[in-house]
Design goal:
Bound molecules: adenosine-5'-diphosphate
CATH architecture of the largest domain: 3-Layer(aba) Sandwich
Shape: globular
Strand order of the largest sheet: 1-2-3
CATH class of the largest domain: Alpha Beta
CATH superfamily of the largest domain: HUPs
Strand content: 5-15%
Helix content: 40-55%
Number of domains: 2
Order of helices and strands: EHEHEHHHHEHEHHHHH
Number of helices: 12
Distance between the termini: 31 Å
Largest sheet: 3 strands, parallel
């Protein structure tokens, strides 16, 4: 059976890009894979400038959002990365076998470092810590969005390199983890320019109120060919259509495609229908989040239990790694 691990940064609120690209899939996967591990990767959130009080708050808020979205502590394991010290221990070990050139080639590194005057080492070695996050639990399946596919290639290479050097040829120790993508593998921001991302400020928060979501949807970019309401559009090039595919039932998606391409609906009508279907899914999530905020002890209990479970697995992995590497 697949061993599932995935992580999310507490660098801001959970947005619908994270939700559709990863978290909604996590909620489904935990049904068939009760041992799935989901991690709030707080160490990964330290590479930019940040305020410790804000990080503490966001870590808590991320736990609220994930539990509200449907992560069930009775089925899956939810915890914060920094509460299991073996993550950084294994990351150091992987640093000693990861080629520098591979890290410098990573698109996300090139992109993020080009926007900074002084680049910290952690931004470069981020995928090494990510490899450690996954391999610490010997996970072979990682449900993520498309932006993480290249990092996972690196995790596979790290696993291969470590196995080649320290494991018997016929009994590799680390699996080679593969991404598990959803049909909505890459959600664009409402500006239609770049992927929806906390760092780009183009997100819709999972817990935003209906009015606030509508205020963002209304001016959102659509098919540029639809200058006037009577101009027919091409649904596939429109970001709003892709959001319909994620939120609206199939008959509605078919209707949207037809009404857009025949100009029977204007973009505002199309957005109103989308908003309705988004609300149908998001209102219960917002309600659960409000309940959880009233009961912080439930969140602490879920995270503490997750830490305990993960520490046990992590200690066992590190024991075997150290043994194989001559560190015992
Ligand atoms: P962000 O990119 O907003 O900083 P994270 O790096 O914490 O978010 O990513 C958490 C998860 O959400 C990852 O699995 C990532 O692939 C997924 N994800 C992030 N942005 C998007 C998006 N725009 N579309 C689809 N999936 C996404």
């Amino acid at each position: 059976m697949a061993r599932i691990f995935s992580g999310i940064q507490p660098s801001g609120e959970l947005h619908i890009g994270n939700y559709l690209g990863a978290v909604r899939n996590w909620v489904q996967l935990q049904q068939a894979h009760p041992g799935a591990i989901f991690c709030i990767v707080d160490y990964h959130a330290l590479t930019g400038n940040y305020d410790p009080a804000v990080l503490r708050q966001r870590r808590h808020e991320m736990a609220v959002s994930l539990l509200a979205a449907g992560i069930d502590p009775a089925r899956a394991t939810l915890y914060a990365q920094s509460t299991v010290p073996e993550h950084t221990e294994l990351a150091w070990i992987f640093n000693t076998i990861t080629p520098l050139g591979e890290l410098e080639r990573q698109t996300q590194y090139k992109d993020k470092s080009s926007r900074q005057e002084s680049v910290v080492v952690g931004l470069l070695t981020y995928p090494v810590l990510q490899a450690a996050d996954i391999l610490l639990y010997l996970a072979d399946t990682v449900p993520v969005g498309e932006d993480q596919v290249q990092h996972l290639e690196l995790s596979r290479e790290v696993a291969r390199k470590w196995n080649a050097r320290f494991a018997p040829e016929d009994a590799p120790f680390f699996p080679e983890p593969k991404p598990l993508l959803t049909p909505t593998r890459r959600i664009m921001g409402l500006d239609g320019q770049a992927k929806m991302s906390k760092s780009m400020g183009n997100t819709i928060g999972l817990l935003e109120e209906g009015d606030a979501i509508w205020a963002k949807l209304r001016p959102a970019v659509t098919d540029p060919a639809r200058v006037r309401k009577t101009d027919p559009g091409t649904p596939e090039v429109c970001n709003i259509y892709h959001l319909h595919k994620a939120f609206s039932p199939p008959p509605v998606v078919a209707e949207v495609a037809e009404k857009c391409s025949t100009a029977a609906w204007g973009c505002i009508e199309c957005k109103k229908v989308l908003h309705e279907h988004m609300e149908a899914e998001l209102v219960p999530i917002r309600r659960r989040a409000a309940e959880l905020r009233e009961a912080p002890e439930l969140i602490t209990a879920a995270l503490d239990a997750g830490t305990e479970t993960c520490r046990t697995i992590a200690r066992a992995t590190m024991g075997r790694v150290k043994e194989a590497m001559g560190l015992t």
